[in-house]
Write a structure and sequence with these properties.
Among the domains are: 14-55, no CATH class; 217-229 and 287-417; 742-810, no CATH class. 75% of the residues lie in helices and 0% in strands. It has helices spanning 2-27, 34-42, 46-152, 156-170, 178-211, 213-233, 242-259, 263-267, 293-304, 308-326, 337-360, 367-389, 395-414, 420-451, 462-471, 477-481, 493-512, 519-546, 553-568, 570-581, 595-622, 640-655, 661-684, 693-711, 728-739, 742-748, 761-778, 786-810; strands spanning 458-459, 486-487. It has a two-stranded antiparallel sheet. It starts with a helix and ends with a helix. Belongs to the SEC15 family.
């Protein structure tokens, strides 16, 4: 029962579901019926649904049939009316066709005209559009043409500006055209071309200023020289930096040139043509010779292109290379001043250009870069000058070099470069200059001394007298009172040497000019150099003359007189230096002149040379001595050689009248002593093995002649027998042998007041041995005579006693 109820309930649900599906099929669009049918196929009552579907279809067919049957008569009537209308419609169609044919025929020309009008309107639109497009393209083409013209005329910076306008303003408006794409593709190439061409111009500029640096530097140094000359004219006015002002004016000129974009200014790439006119009152500004527009253009171009740093690095690198080339001196620079001048001109030109670039560009070079270059240049320049100046042996060249270095330093100082090291280096060159001066004056003094006649200067008129006194400070009232002709006591080399010393002082003063030294420093420098001249150069020259082999006694005497007067003139040299330096001698640390010492030393050397020369002359006469030591004859006059020697000495000492008394006395005493010593050596020399009493008598006559000469007072100032004491040894020795006074000698020997105090027993024994040997050989048969035997015994006895004295003395 329950199962039956459940089946009945399921049957009812299925029927309701099928009904719903059928309604859905009826109301749903055909395209969406798929899901509905799927639900049927998914169910299990497919057969029953199909039955219900068939039933529903039959019901709808019956309803359709009913409706058709209800409207059939109306449908038939409508068909009948349609058939009637078809005939009328056919007539209307024929009329329309006929009308259309007529219309087509009649409107054929109008259609042709309309087609023509249509084509004209189309062309008009095309032309208008073309004009509009061309109006957009023409500025682009004009700008591009302008760009090419600017490139052709090398106006690269304006070309770059044109390129920017073209790229950012004009090309975007016509970017869809093919030619514009070609232009756009060419823009990077054009930029590179502008970049390369501007760099090429810069390279030409760098090469040009490298070649013309000396011209730029020469002009800058001329300006500095002109300014310095002007400063010398108006010393009372302080220097107000007018050079700086002129420098700023030059920069203003270049700034004006920079703004100019004329083809001429842009084609110039270096040095402008400026002819030198020596007669012109004004020298053109150093930077006026240079057109810097290539640098400015290239800098602006690289700045616009965003490569300013690359440009700065390249510029600085190239200029460093050029600096090293400029600072490399030529190997023969030291030979001429022009070599130094060209070297300095190039350095000045280089830094004038860099200084101008520093002040007219923003950051292309900076002060640190300039200072670095200057430090390098300063060290290399100073090293080169030290090396090459050391080769200079001409003081005039060294002085010209100093003036050139000062001008070089002053020129660079105008542009703000520190130059203290150059002035310090000039102080080193000053020492070298002093050495070259000393060498030059050594030659001058040598020529003066070689050409001097070593005779007192004769004057025959007042004019000649004043001329000599004007050259040399000499005052002598006695000489002034003497009538003409008369003679100065000194020879010509005195005023010549004195004037050359003054010339040397002037030469030293010239070097100290413009070195920014104080008067005290200048005075000290001059005095030290003058002392070197006196103590080394002049002293050596005098010593060389004095030591000359062929120098005569007359010349030596004149040298002593000359040096005496030069010594007295030293105070006038002191006054001369004081007058030109305005530094009083009493000032602290003032160097004193050593001239007095120099001339004293020279005079002492001359005196010694006189003594030596006299002795040599005496030796030459003594070489003529020809004694016959074995003669038995007694002579009655002095030997000829000794007579000649005494005559020579008399004439020589007569020349010594102008010498200081002490010098003449010393010379005379020295000559007598040397003569006495030489005669003693002649008597005792080993070659004279034997001598006779006759030879000793002749020798005694010669000694008496010498004593007579000493007594005659050849040189005033000696006391009574002072000069004779030179011969006392000889006199006592000869008296002992001639008088044969051995008993007295032997008895009084050793007593302070003995008669033969100056006779040495060794000397007496030597001479006695020579006489003993003579007695033995010449009196071989005389030994049988009693007197001769007694004499021989006496000689032997005396000899024995002398040996006893000698041995006791040694013990």
């Amino acid at each position: 029962m329950e199962r039956g109820k459940m089946a009945e309930a399921e049957s009812l649900e299925t029927a309701a579901e099928h009904e719903r599906i059928l309604r859905e099929i009826e109301s749903t669009d055909t395209a969406c019926i798929g899901p509905t049918l799927r639900s049927v196929y998914d169910g299990e009552e497919h057969g029953r649904f199909m039955e219900k579907l068939e039933t529903r279809i039959r019901n709808h067919d019956r309803e359709i049939e009913k409706m058709c049957n209800f409207h059939y008569q109306g449908f038939v009537d409508s068909i009948t009316e349609l058939l009637k209308v078809r005939g009328e419609a056919q007539k209307l169609k024929n009329q329309v066709t006929d009308t259309n044919r007529k219309l087509q025929h009649e409107g054929k020309e109008l259609v042709i005209a309309m087609e023509e009008l249509k084509q004209c309107r189309l062309q008009q639109r095309n032309i208008s559009a073309t004009v509009d497009k061309l109006m957009l393209c023409l500025p682009v083409l004009e700008m591009y043409s302008k760009l090419r013209d600017q490139m052709k005329t090398k106006r690269h910076y304006p070309a770059l500006k044109t390129l920017e306008h073209l790229e950012h303003t004009y090309l975007p408006q016509v970017s869809h055209y093919r030619f514009c794409k070609v232009m756009v593709d060419n823009i990077p190439k054009l930029r590179e071309e502008i970049k390369d061409v501007s760099m090429s111009d810069l390279k030409d500029f760098l090469e040009s200023i490298r070649k013309h640096s000396d011209k730029i530097g020469e002009t800058a140094m001329k300006q500095a020289q002109q300014q310095r000359n002007l400063d010398n004219i108006v010393l009372q006015q302080p220097r107000i930096g007018s050079k700086r002002k002129s420098k700023k004016d030059v920069y203003t000129i270049f700034d004006t040139e920079l703004e100019s974009t004329s083809p001429k200014s842009e084609q110039d790439s270096g040095i402008l043509d400026v002819e030198d006119e020596e007669d012109d009152e004004e020298v053109p500004g150093a930077q006026d010779l240079v057109d810097f527009s290539p640098v400015y253009r290239c800098l602006h171009i690289y700045s616009v292109l965003g490569a300013r740093e690359t440009f700065e690095n390249y510029y600085r690198k190239q200029r460093r290379k050029q600096a090293r080339l400029v600072l490399q001196p030529p190997s023969n620079m030291h030979e001429t001043l022009d070599g130094y001048r060209k070297y300095f001109n190039q350095i000045v030109g280089f830094f004038v250009v860099e200084d101008h670039i520093l002040h007219t560009t923003q950051g292309l070079v900076n002060r640190a870069y300039i200072d670095e270059l200057w430090e390098m240049a300063l060290s290399k320049t100073i090293a080169a000058l030290r090396t090459h100046s050391s080769y200079c042996s001409d003081p005039n060249l060294v002085l010209d070099l100093k003036n050139l270095i000062v001008l070089f330093a002053d020129t660079l100082q105008v542009y703000g470069f520190p130059v203290n090291q150059l002035f310090d280096m000039l102080l080193e060159i000053r020492d070298q200059y002093s050495e070259t001066l000393l060498k030059k004056w050594a030659g001058i003094f040598r020529n003066i001394l070689d050409s001097d006649n070593y005779s007192p200067i004769p004057v025959t008129s007042e004019e000649m007298y004043k001329k000599v006194v004007g050259q040399f400070p000499f005052q002598d009232t006695e000489l002034e009172k003497q009538p003409f002709p008369k003679k100065f006591p000194f020879s010509e080399f005195v005023p010549k040497v004195y004037n050359q010393i003054k010339e040397f002082i002037y030469a030293c003063l010239k070097f100290s000019e413009d070195l920014h030294l104080s008067s005290t420093e200048v005075d000290d420098m001059i005095r030290k150099s003058t002392n070197l001249l006196l103590t080394r150069t002049l002293s050596n020259s005098l010593q060389n003359v004095i030591k000359r082999k062929n120098i005569g006694l007359t010349e030596l005497v004149q040298i002593i007189i000359n040096t005496t007067h030069l010594e007295k003139s030293c105070k006038y040299l002191e006054e001369f230096i004081t007058n030109i330096t305005n530094v009083l001698p009493e000032t602290v640390h003032t160097t004193k002149l050593y001239g007095t010492t120099t001339f004293k030393d020279a005079r002492h050397a001359a005196e010694e040379e006189i003594y030596t020369n006299l002795n040599q002359k005496i030796d030459q006469f003594l070489q003529l001595a020809d004694y016959d030591w074995m003669t038995g004859d007694l002579g009655n006059k002095a030997s000829d050689y000794l007579v000649d020697l005494i005559a020579f000495l008399r004439s020589t000492f007569a020349v010594f009248t102008h010498l200081p008394g002490k010098v003449a006395q010393t010379a005379c005493m020295s000559a007598c002593k040397h003569l006495a010593t030489s005669l003693m050596q002649l008597l005792l020399e080993a070659e004279v093995r034997q001598l006779t009493l006759g030879a000793l008598q002749q020798f005694n006559l010669d000694v008496r002649e010498c004593e007579q000469f000493a007594r005659s007072g050849p040189v005033p100032g000696f006391q009574e027998d002072t000069l004779q004491l030179a011969f006392i040894d000889l006199r006592q020795l000869l008296d002992l042998f001639i008088q044969w006074d051995w008993s007295t000698y032997l008895a009084d020997y050793g007593q302070p007041n003995c008669k033969y105090l100056r006779v040495n027993p060794v000397t007496a024994l030597t001479l006695l041995e020579k006489m003993k040997d003579t007695s033995r050989k010449n009196n071989m048969f005389a030994q049988f005579r009693k007197n001769e035997r007694d004499k021989q015994k006496l000689i032997d006895t005396v000899a024995k006693q002398l040996r006893g004295l000698i041995s006791s003395h040694h013990s």
